[in-house]
Specification:
Largest sheet: 13 strands, parallel
Strand content: 35-45%
Low-confidence stretches: 1-39
Strand order of the largest sheet: 1-2-6-10-14-18-22-26-30-32-35-38-41
Oligomer: single chain
Radius of gyration: 26 Å
Number of helices: 1
Helix content: under 10%
Length: 417
């Protein structure tokens, strides 16, 4: 009998391994293994009082829900010296999702703010939101999966009274995909902004929007991946920006099909704009990357690593105007680029023979094998309103410091006169 008991004890680890999937179904009711159990959300309106150390962290004086990690609404109406979490867990078989954190005007958070934070291996933070109308001394994360989980569909909104002193991440993960996250700001960010950031996953479909009235002093990364690719990310600028902007950064791999948009009224005179970047490896950092000037007229310190340059000229444009001036002292490489030109409706009529300087750089432009686009998006075509269709030709000056277009034909309005 004693031998049988010892045998049974030695077999228990094997019995547990076999039974775990059954236990998972039984304990989680209708939720299968690997799926996210349903947790009723909690509503927290913090106006002061006791704080605690967040689970899985060493951050004291923090604010978080102790009963749920998904579907929470946390509104911060009084100062918090530690971190703030919409949802936080290290529990397996779960997502941290659909949480919202709001930092009210005139309120300061001394630490970091997370819409959702997941510390368990291979589980994700998704569809979480942070709204900042006050001040955050640390960093802000829409959603963060710190142990190999994906970050998807998270967003951060910084209002006109919002001020973030650290970096801002729409979504961040250590080694899984970071997809379709958004950061938009009307306020001030002293640090850098990452639409999505991952260590060893693809960064895809993330966006950064700088609205009119916003100021950002750090670096912009539409999508960032340390090991893998960054593609189809977008940076949209209508505010003031003074650093470098990278549509995608595949630090050791490709960064393609990313877009940077300059809106009318933006101030990027001190900025550098790059479609893609990396620090090493064989990755492509140019193919499909697009710079779009939507009514923008002004200067920029440097531009590079774009395949497509689209100019939607403002309604005030006239013959011999210059649209973009590059001032940083480095040559602009536009070899084998595609250039598209269109006009916003309602502006003055251009005549056949009129020319406009699209880019001027005293340090030179290499526009070898560049060409006018044959097939470009509908909103970037050679059309004014619905009555005039222009045909443009590229003109390269002998000094190779200016890229111009000349009107070679006008349809629907004779010679435009």
């Amino acid at each position: 009998m004693s031998q049988k008991k010892r045998k049974n004890i030695s077999q228990r680890p094997h019995t547990r391994k076999i039974a775990l999937p059954l236990l998972c179904w039984a304990l989680l009711a209708l939720v299968p293994c690997g799926a996210s159990p349903v947790h009723a959300g909690e509503v927290i309106n913090y106006t002061g009082g006791a704080l605690a150390t967040a689970p899985g962290t060493d951050k004291a004086n923090s604010l978080f829900s102790s009963s749920s990690f998904s579907g929470n609404s946390v509104t911060v109406g009084a100062a918090v010296s530690g971190d703030v979490y919409g949802g936080i867990t290290e529990s397996p078989w779960s997502k941290v999702s659909s949480n919202t954190v709001t930092i009210k005007e005139n309120v300061t958070v001394g630490g970091d703010v997370y819409g959702g934070w997941h510390g368990a291996f291979n589980y994700e933070a998704s569809d979480n939101s942070v709204i900042v109308d006050g001040t955050v001394d640390g960093r802000v994360y829409g959603g963060s999966a710190n142990s190999s989980g994906a970050a998807r569909g998270n967003n951060v909104t910084i209002g006109r009274t919002g001020h973030v002193k650290g970096d801002v991440y729409g979504g961040k993960t250590s080694s899984r995909p970071v997809e379709n996250n958004l950061v938009e700001t009307w306020g001030t960010v002293d640090g850098s902004i990452y639409g999505g950031s991952t260590g060893n996953g693809d960064a895809t479909g993330n966006r950064i929007v700088l609205h009119k009235g916003s100021t950002v002093n750090g670096t912009l990364y539409g999508g960032y991946s340390f090991i893998r690719t960054a593609s189809n990310n977008t940076i949209d600028i209508a505010g003031t920006f003074t650093g470098n902007a990278y549509g995608g950064s595949g630090e050791n791999n490709a960064a393609t099909n990313n877009t940077i948009i300059l809106r009318e009224g933006a101030d990027v005179s001190k900025a550098g704009l790059f479609g893609g970047s990396h620090v090493g490896g064989p990755g492509d950092i140019r193919t499909g990357n697009t710079l779009l000037l939507d009514g923008y007229v002004g200067s920029v310190r440097e531009i590079g690593n774009f395949k497509n340059y689209y100019f939607l000229l403002p309604e005030t444009v006239k013959a011999n105007d210059t649209i973009l001036t590059v001032t940083g002292g480095a040559q602009t490489d536009m070899q084998k680029s595609t250039i598209g030109v269109g006009l916003k409706g309602g502006g003055p009529v251009l005549n056949k023979g009129d020319s406009i300087t699209l880019i001027h750089n005293e340090s030179g432009i290499d526009f070898t094998d560049s060409e006018i686009a044959d097939d470009i998006p509908d909103y970037i075509n050679g059309r004014q309103g619905i009555s005039l269709d222009y045909t443009f030709a590229l003109v390269f000056n002998d000094d190779k410091n200016a890229l111009k277009v000349e009107v070679t034909d006008v349809q629907g309005g004779g010679d435009g006169g």
